[in-house]
Amino acid sequence: MPMNVPARPGALDLRPLSARSVVLSLLLGTHPPELPVRELVRLVEGFGVGGSTLRAALSRMVAAGDLRRTDTGYRLSDRLLERQRRQDDAVHPRTRAWDGDWEMIVITATGRGPAERADLRARLTALRLAELREGVWLRPANLVRALPGELDRVAQHYTARPDRPARDLAGSLWPLDAWSATARALLAHIARTPRPAGRLTAFAAVVRHLLADPVLPSALLPADWPGAELRAAYTDYQRELIGEVRARVRRE
């Protein structure tokens, strides 16, 4: 059964951004994930977040463990650095030449409750694996990444060469046409969205969509796959956003 099937191809998941969401979106896209207070104030002003609203949001985020104070500003907490790593991997995935092998994970643990099963399913999906049948997950072995050691307690890992044609198998595991349609809809939406708040909302949706990209070998993808174009658009946006504000701060 295909994973991550959207409600309808081309549908956009545009969620209004709160002050907290604006701050997190900015810091998650910044390396290192830290901004001076003056720079942060300038950034959020462009998205309609006032100073008092920002201060209240920052206080709540520090109390909740999302941020920590530094000498000059705010930085992502250690807890959110893993989220930034996943986002970075989505924007800049590390791949290798594919030789036809597939990774296969077989769940061997028994007696797990619904919450544990849901958590394991989410972790395997985040690793860009797809479920062939209950307890059997796989993907082409073209990613440069190690599997988490804790998986050894609940699953076994194999290298496989399925008899089924690879393109057919990939098409049955992931909704590739739907993903492509939504990516193109996002690119079109961005092109006609000039307002800063609207663009930030759109690019937050871009990141969520890239997290669902299976990052398959090119031989298994439909023609004109828009993954690289969507990643380039996000990278350009982050560079322009941070560069513009830092230049403005230096001039003051």
UniProtKB/TrEMBL annotation:
Q: Which domain of life is it from?
A: Bacteria
Q: Which residues form the Transcriptional repressor PaaX-like N-terminal domain?
A: 18-79
* One Pfam family, short name: PaaX
What's an example Gene Ontology biological process for this entry?
DNA-templated transcription
Where in this chain does the record put each Transcriptional repressor PaaX-like central Cas2-like domain? 96-147
The species is Streptomyces swartbergensis
Transcriptional repressor PaaX-like C-terminal domain ranges (all copies): 208-242
Indicate what this protein is called per its UniProt record: PaaX domain-containing protein, C-domain protein
